[in-house]
Amino acid sequence: MSFLSIDNLKVDYVTDDGIVHALNGVSLELVQGETLGLVGETGAGKTTMAKCIMGILPKRTGKIRSGEITFEEKNLLKCSEKELQSIRGAQIAMIFQDPMTSLNPVLTVGEQIAEAVENHERCGKARAMERAEEMLELVGIPAERVHEYPHQFSGGMKQRVVIAIALACNPKMLIADEPTTALDVTIQAQVLEMMQSLKRQLNTSMLLITHDLGVVAQNCDRVAVIYAGEIVEYGTVMDVFKRMKHPYTQGLFSSIPQINADVKRLNSIPGLMLDPTLDVEGCRFCDRCKYATEECRINHPELVEIESGHSVRCFQKK
Amino acid sequence: MNEKQTGNIVTNGINSRSLWAEAWLRFKRNRVAVAGLIFVAFLIVVSIATLVLDLVTSNEIYNAYVVKQNLSLKLAPPSAEHVFGCDEYGRDILFRLIWGTRYSLFIGVVSIAIALVGGGILGSIAGFYGGKVDQMIMRVMDVFLSIPSMVMAIAIVSALGTGMTNLLFSIAVPQIPRLARIVRASVMSVKDREFVEAARSVGAGDFEIILKYIIPNALSPIIVQASLSVGAAILSIAGLSFLGIGVQPPAPEWGSILNAARTYMRDAWHISVIPGLMIMITVLSLNVAGDGLRDALDPKLKN
Amino acid sequence: MSLTNNDTLLQVNNLKKYFPTPHGLLYAVDNVSFNINKGDTLGVVGESGCGKSTLGRSILRLHEPTAGEVIFEGKNILSLNHAQMKHMRKDMQLIFQDPYESLNPRMTVSQAIQAPMLIQGMYKSKDKAALEKRTLEMMDMVGLARRLVNSYPHELDGGRRQRIGIARALALKPKFIVCDEPVSALDVSIQAQVLNLLQDLQEQLGLTYMFITHDLSVVKHLSTQIMVMYLGQTVEIGSPDQLFHNPCHPYTKALLSAIPIPDPEIKMERIQLKGEITSPINVGPGCRFAKRCVYAKPECHERSCEMTEVESGHKVACFMVKDMM
């Protein structure tokens, strides 16, 4: 059962240097209780998608050209700011990459968690503070630290606090935008494990945005690979990691040095990502693709299901 | 693609723009700021033109129109012949305003240039070396900052006497600590950046690092502050002249015109209003141009 | 002190770098010793705050070390005066982590590559033709298109900027390069391009690298020898094989087990590490890892452990090493 679905989402940014096509018709579905990994490089449109779901696209420059985001039968893109406010935090919560800047330095962590609770659940201050203590315990921080300020916490602890705030209102869905990129590996392992167990406990669905294929393999049920504003491959973790079909996905895997394999030389993907201000007719990856044919340059491939639940956007890999 | 000649090797260069060139493109989009800059540029042209005219005609026009008294036209209101009217000695106000441009602009720009050199050297030494040197310099600057700039200017002029050099000096000195602070902050923010360390790792010395790596990158806020300070300096000159210790009559400085006009405010409004407006518009132009520069040089602030 | 053989390019003995802070002394690098042979790559791994960057900068004397020896080609460079050191910098260069921060935004590509050569007097600034020829050679070498010669860093992407950083370091024909996380700011596909470039250059020019990173898979891929650091000290050093197949220090084990493996069929068994890395301010005696170590015994908290050789070229600083193996 899908409870969040994105359909043909197109987003442009209007900048001084021209119109940047950030998302070019993205369609995605998130199944209740599952974790969907969104993998892609800088500029692929990962964060733009998260911002669209949250309704926090910068108003001055960001323009949604078309598409629908349906969350529990409601089109989020048609919602008023007021409706969105009641959804944000309570139903969909977001965790940002940098725990250092996403906490307010002049409020105690308890106050910040309680604030999130008060905004959405009509309950008294005392009840909200109680809830804050529960949440801290839940993310593995002793409740006594509820009156401490963010600067008294280390990086990993701060990210736990951010997660506590996000989960304080029992949201149905959590968007995590590179939640562990700023953390060290041992701390990353701790935080990811905690997020996994909380997710199971609270039956939250999660959109996990990352560039780290290892994090995806260990934490996600399904994966969407995004390139230049398009989903190029979508399927279960096994589909994408074991039977990858799109040349870009294959390129990504051969680009990373793997700890459990010995490779003398990495196979890098030649070239750079397409200039996002360009309009192209053909496949957006064809300039870097070794399988590209004339067809790829002229026609734009659609996302086609090649086996049950596994879709690829490529002419050559039907 | 344009062909670029670099030394003996022709390269098929792409159109590269330095950060300065990009800032200029951004500045050009800000119409108000461009209008301010054009007005300031116009005043500069006017003041240079009058200087050249005076040199060529050996002050003939200056003597005939700007300072020569004609009591029959005393306090004459604006008319077709005298667009802005005449002052208490029957001198054409338009001529006096035009010839007065050079005082305001010249003193404004030169005094800030002096302050920039002084504040720049002190600020960059304090910012680059830090520690005790920084403490010593900045505490002295703090003392200076605690004296109101007008009071300090009046004190300097009264101690040294009126005259162009002293006037420049009295306006520059109070600006030095303000600029020193900006320069210091700017230098400090640049000196710990990695490209400075990169320069050090290839063996560059302090002087080279300051000149080629720190100053070009620390310049933006300094330029903005300096352009805003010119406006403040023009106000100071006008203020000092208004008090009678700035530029001395019969020189047509705008502030001294205002000073003389104050007695006739009821009978002849134009003598005070028009130079007052001139001062206001000039300072306003400098400020909007300065603000525009700030937005253009630091685009992150605006988004 | 370990023996020096003819192949040793760089030998570091008991290097210390302490920083005074308002809360006490910060032991950023504490008693670190190692050798690097010509043409080899020493990978230095550790989490943020373990002193790996400070170590790299202390070896190049960008931070003046507190004590110790850095012997480069038989000369202790810590005893060199200012002019001798400037000359020495030709042989020892640094590639930075952040290609956005490490290039002067007001300099074009050619100016950035030429600056080191002018500063070191390899070319006179009036000798324009030779200088420009060399600049273009450098650009070819690192794979930068010649048409970018007059571009500014802000017009280029991260991968290309990092190539400028590499060209700048190579311009002086160095023998030894400290690479301080040169790919961690780059995207995966660009990262592979730059890693391949660094490998190719090493082969072509016979370079010796010290490769600092937090990414164990990158280090395994490139290094001939790996050193693991924790709070300013070396905890384990050995060949990639020794370290990855027979890790002896509990911290190395924890680090290895924490890497998420990009294969959904291999589920990781985690050695849970309690707590987080603290800052090495006013550290007392005893093993610095003891507080987080599941195997810690009372003696671990009382006295510090020396590096001991467990097999040829594989050294560990842990009392429990016999139990670990």
Provide a descriptive summary of the structure in words.
- The complex is a heterotrimer of chains A (318), B (303) and C (325).
- With 318 residues, chain A is of the alpha/beta class.
- Chain A contains 10 helices and 12 strands.
- Chain A has one domain: Rossmann fold, CATH 3.40.50.300.
- Chain A is 31% helix and 25% strand.
- Chain A has an 8-stranded mixed beta sheet, sandwiched between helices. In chain A, strands 2-1-4-5 form a 4-stranded antiparallel beta sheet, with helices on one face.
- In chain A, strand 1 and strand 2 form a beta hairpin.
- In chain A, helix 3 packs across helix 4 and helix 3 packs parallel to helix 5 (155-167).
- The longest helix of chain A is centred in the middle third of the chain and has 18 residues, at 185-202.
- The model of chain A has no long low-confidence stretch (mean pLDDT 87).
- Chain B is an all-alpha fold and 303 residues long.
- Chain B has one domain (25-65, 85-302): MetI-like fold.
- Chain B has helices spanning 19-29, 31-56, 60-67, 93-129, 131-145, 149-160, 164-191, 194-201, 206-242, 254-261, 269-297, 299-302; strands at 4-6, 9-11.
- In chain B, helix 4 (93-129) runs antiparallel to helix 5 (131-145).
- Chain B is elongated and about 75 Å long.
- Chain C folds into 2 domains: 8-91 and 174-324, Rossmann fold, CATH 3.40.50.300; 101-173, no CATH class.
- Chain C is built from 11 helices and 12 strands.
- Chain C has helices at residues 52-59, 82-88, 109-119, 128-142, 158-170, 188-205, 216-222, 240-245, 250-258, 298-302, 321-324, and strands at 8-21, 24-37, 41-45, 67-72, 75-76, 92-95, 176-180, 208-213, 225-230, 233-238, 308-311, 314-316.
- The interface between A and C is large, with 46 and 44 residues.
